[in-house]
Amino acid sequence: MAISVQHIRHATSIIVINKKRILIDPMLSEIGQLSPVPFTRNYRRNPLTSLPVSLNIFENVDAILLTHRHFDHWDKKSISILNKNIPILCGPKDKSSVLKAGFTKVISIDDAYEWAGITIKRIEGPHAPGLTGVLLGVVSGFYLKTKTEGSIYIVGDCIYTPKIEKTFQDLSPDIALLNASEAEMIWGTVITMTREDIARIAQLSPKTKLVAVHLETINHCKLSRKQLSEFLDKKNLSNSVLIPKDGEIISF
Predict the structure, then answer these.
(1) Omega into 36 within 30° of 0, i.e. cis?
(2) CB neighbours (10 Å) of residue 130?
(3) Maximum distance among all Cα pairs of the chain, rounded to whole angstroms
């Protein structure tokens, strides 16, 4: 493989695949510039952590991949500073809003799409179970594959479902980014994957290198890197799951 991932912060990463730099779910606001997530157990302003890189690294990305438009994945700062002519790959429900924000090259992916020698497949899923899932809506995950460099699955804020399970079984991605922060609403509903979900995926798809992100940045995200690391140690999964620091680059 020749894929790399620079984990920026929360769900924001830059992946390099087929020599293309793809920015995932940009949230570029500085510490405390965003409101707390509503209906959660504390009201700390977001983000909780500073951006670990200079904004100029986002000037030379080749595309943006947007899983959904919640403010912790697509904030006003990103909308204001990113090049409006960068191609944006997104789900059908996000296209009109991204166009209204002034971006000119919005590519809506319903099922699959070929871009720059990369096959991109969209895997839709709920953000949460039950009524909360209906209120939050569906989000998009994206599976990217090239002929020579392998594959990476950006799962997004999809919770663990039989569809996600089948995706890992059928596609067996080389790498997967998991938003696994155990983000929780005030009534107790968890709206991202959990540490137990990471363990299930590691057992289900042992050839996949898992990268746990979406941690320690937004006020409703409960799971810390330390807690996750201790859990993985107990499950003998430390070699299967990477927990990158903010700004860290991982090459595969």
Answers:
(1) no
(2) 9
(3) 48
Residue 238, H or E segment: none
Q: In a 3-state reduction of DSSP, which class is residue 81?
A: helix
Question: Cα(129)–Cα(64) distance, rounded to whole angstroms?
Answer: 28
Task: State which CATH number among 3.50.50.60, 3.60.15.10, 3.40.47.10, 2.60.120.200 fits the domain covering 4-251.
Answer: 3.60.15.10
Q: Quick check: helix, strand or coil at residue 106?
A: strand
For every residue of 158-176, DSSP letters joined together read PPP-HHHHHHHHHH--SEE
pLDDT for 180: 97
Annotate 193-220 with DSSP letters as a single string.
Answer: --HHHHHHHHHH-TTSEEEEES-SSSTT
- What is the token pair recorded at 181? 């922060």
Query: At residue 31, what are phi and psi to the nearest 5 degrees?
Result: -55, 130
Burial status of residue 75 (CB atoms within 10 A of its CB: 0-12, 13-18, 19 or more): buried
DSSP structure class, residue 67? S
Cβ-Cβ contacts under 8 Å for 224 (sequence gap 6 or more): 215, 216
Cα(145)–Cα(141) distance, integer angstroms: 13
Q: DSSP label at 59?
A: G
Question: What averages of pLDDT result for each successive group of 10 residues across the chain (252 residues)?
Answer: 94 98 98 96 96 96 98 98 98 98 98 98 94 85 96 97 97 98 96 98 97 98 98 96 98 96
What is the residue extent of each domain of the chain? 4-251
Model pTM greater than 0.85? Answer: yes
Q: Looking at residue 30, what DSSP letter applies?
A: P
When computed from its CA atoms, the radius of gyration of the chain, rounded to whole angstroms, is 17
Q: Residue 125 has what pLDDT?
A: 95
